[in-house]
Amino acid sequence: MRLIQFRPEGIYCVPGQFFIDPWQPVDMALITHGHADHARWGMKRYLCHHFTVPILKSRIGPDIQVQGIGYGEAITINGVQVSFHPAGHIIGSAQIRLAYKGKVTVISGDYKLQEDGLSTPFEPIKCHEYVSESTFGLPIYQWNTVEKQNEEMANWVQHNQSYKKTSVFVGYSLGKAQRVMKAVEGIAPLYVHYSIHKLNQAYESLGIQLPKYEVLDFREDVKHVNQGIVVVPPALVDSNVIRKIPNMAYAICSGWMTVRGARRWRSADAGFAISDHADWNDLLTAIKSTGAEKVYVTHGQTAVFAKYLNEIGIDAQEVKTEFGEEEDEAPTTKLEGSVL
Amino acid sequence: MKTFASLVHALDSTNKTNQKMEAIHHFLEVAEDKDKLWFLALFSGRRPKRGVSTTLLREWVKEITSIPDWLFQESYASVGDLGETISLLLPPPIGYMDFSLAEWMDKIHNLSRYDESQKKQFILQVWANLPHQERFIFNKLLGGSFRLGVSTKGLINAISSYYNLEASAVSHSIMGEWTVENSSFEELIHGQYVDSNLSKPYPFCLAYPIEGVEQTLIDLKDWQIEYKWDGIRGQVIKRNQEVFIWSRGEELVTDQFPEIVEEIKNWEGDFVLDGEILAIADGEILNFTALQKRLNRKVISKKLLEEVPIGLYLYDILEITHQDVRQESMQARRALLEGLLADKPLINIKISPLIQVDSLESLKSVREQARDINSEGLMLKHTNSVYHVGRKKGDWWKWKIDPLTIDAVLIYAQKGSGRRSSHYTDYTFAVRDGDNLVTIAKAYSGLTDKEIQEVSRFVNKNAVEKFGPVRTVKPELVFEIAFEGIGWSTRHKAGVALRFPRILRWRKDKTVAEIDNLESVKKLIH
Fold first, then answer.
1. Signal peptide: which range, if any (chain B) (predicted)?
2. CB atoms B453 and A332 under 8 Å
3. How many Å from the N-terminal Cα to the C-terminal Cα in chain B?
């Protein structure tokens, strides 16, 4: 019997009779992490890491049926042993390990190997089958070290200050925004958009210390942020809202910013290739470290990455999913609807 | 190269003219003289010879990174720039090589004297010792081409404002042939080499598209009206028995048009003329597709010379007997031009005729029939206008005929390059030919960024291929394609070639059943 199947509703655990990150409403959903393309509305019951619970409640609704679980803690569902292990993608993100009659499958959701100082670091799990993303599955994507990234961002802020400019960072409100806040902590007064503040509260409710910041209300006058640092979600980039910030320079923080053309397309003042996904080398490292006999490649560069894995002797197959609305479809995808 | 790298970075990371200008000023302030010359040379398209082939560069990077060729191709398709792809694929540097731009250019120049293994040794060493941004620039320098973030005009404006010079003077000074070795930057831009060069052209005077014909053409007597010819704009120079022909792209094209050179050589005196190079047979101007057969050929066969004879329609005179007459009025210059031609035999060369009408109505009907004589509309020049440098609103207008249009369906899409490399921006369109679709045109522009994103998403979801740069897509999206002209072609499958095709608009209201068919398209050829 196959342990997992790819069904129209999502990834299905056959003996366990539950779904992992489904995109259509089902009875039981195990959730790898809180991003909207993996944690969707309408499931009767949710199971996720403890840290993902407040995020789901904040994003989907306070009344959902959700149960939390710790990393490494095992439970049994219909005879399938289920455990969650750190994926290093964002806070609470997990790879879900399924064990049944001696066969082990790991669904990794989104992951990265780089340590961002906020998420629990990625942990390689031995398995027979591995489900991997491939968002940045091209060898042109090679991240700088976190130290180097932080240094570049700090330099940019200082450069802006020397021209009396305000530095605006654009990053996804869950994960990227907090990472940016951490990276520029202490350089200048820090302001964040309300949608980021809402998720910051979820972080703080879990006892995670974030840098001191002020919530910026764009309905009011925002001139006081001058020469400070403002963090906003991507939806605001082309809106009139950020133009209210006087004398600003804005930087987009995304893995796509590796490529010059993508930076210029967005016509941002700067682009920082900072990602919560694994780069090319880390994807390969992660996959090799699982020892998996079979790899299912989901969202991203599926065709290219699966072909390469097969060429280096890893049996891989591409799988069509509805993941990847968050960062991977196109560098320009707008996600968060509410602007104010 | 740090100074140059930070200039490139600064130009790259803003689209505001002022900030680009500031960045160039900063560079002019801190850079060495030779670096400035190289900067000017590279950004105005004076490319040094390529010392190492791109094939070799590709081979070496594949060897270092041990990635297969197909994966290199995928990466290249995704980045859209070879130098950048190579730089991104390479592992992080292990050291740093610190040289100025001019020193790098010397090293690159010396490459041509090396054998292949020496070249390889040098390039690999450089790649291992430059951070990404500088490695990318180095790769671009190897290729010779370098047009990053600033147009030649923007560059000239920045230089002239920094040195407090006239933009026209600077653009004249840096035109023509000069080399980094034999020039000094300050002397060059101050025009010290201008007189010594017989071939030195003047910047072309250009026209804006007209807005509001009625408000502009108040008194027709104030306007010199000519046809706008659809050929190659050219500047013909004769000084001290030598003839030069410059194209508007600042290229010397003298050798391509022996008919003109021969005729001009026999004319007395020295002068600089502005005109349109056209294919003319038996006194009739041919379609642009005919002229295209004559362009950019190393050798022009006798057969081709007979098949596509070249002529020149003269518009203007800029210099006579070494005297710059560009500040004379259009009327006066026209008289000078007519005077110059009065006693000439005029075989392949003619003066562009003036259009005499007494009302705007009759002018409109002249314009509407312009396509019948292979003209693309009208030129309106104020009789008092001087010969400006570049484009200046008010004195010269072009009033083109409305473009032809067809409805066609998108069948292939390809990612663009540079800024457009993250989206499918280059499209191939088809029209109906019986029960089949036949490719009719390629177009690269006309959509907004938002529409491009929408088309890109459609391509991602509806592509047949998964590998390689070109995606065949389900024929579903219909676009209205505008073009300036149409002619027979043996090189195109459809048997016709469109001139200047571009997307006029996305016809979301139409389905593939409503696109044009090839027969009706062919009827547009007269």
1. none
2. yes
3. 57
Q: What's the pLDDT score for residue B236?
A: 96
Name the one residue in this structure whose structure tokens are 């520029």: A184
Is pTM beyond 0.90 here? no
Task: Report how far residue A170's alpha carbon sits from residue A197's, in angstroms, rounded to the nearest whole number.
Answer: 14
pLDDT in tens, A116-157: 888 999 999 999 999 999 999 999 999 999 999 999 999 999
According to DSSP, the β-strands at A103-107 and A80-86 are unpaired
Contact in structure between B120 and B60 (CB atoms under 8 Å): yes
Question: Is B237 in contact with B244 (CB distance < 8 Å)?
Answer: yes
Q: Please answer whether residues B510 and B401 qualify as being in contact, where contact means their C-beta atoms are separated by less than 8 angstroms.
A: no
With beta carbons less than 8 A apart as the criterion, state whether B271 and B319 touch. Answer: yes
Q: Give residue ranges of A with CB < 8 Å to any B CB.
A: 138-142, 256, 258-265, 267-271, 303-304, 307-308, 311, 329-332
Q: Is B228 a catalytic residue?
A: yes
Beta carbons within 8 Å of B303's beta carbon, 6+ residues apart: none
Interaxial angle between packed helices B82-89 and B132-143, expressed in degrees from 0 to 180 and rounded to the nearest 10: 140
Q: How far apart are CA B165 and CA B169, in angstroms?
A: 7
CATH number at residue A114: 3.60.15.10
Domains of chain B: 2-143 (1.10.3260.10), 205-398 (3.30.470.30), 404-522 (2.40.50.140)
What's the rounded Cα separation, in Å, for the pair B448 and A222? 31
Q: Which residues of A touch B67 (CB under 8 A)?
A: 139
Q: List the structure tokens of A69.
A: 């679980």
Name residue B278's amino acid.
L
Q: How many domains does chain A contain in total?
A: 2
Other C-beta atoms lying within 10 Å of the C-beta of residue A258: 24
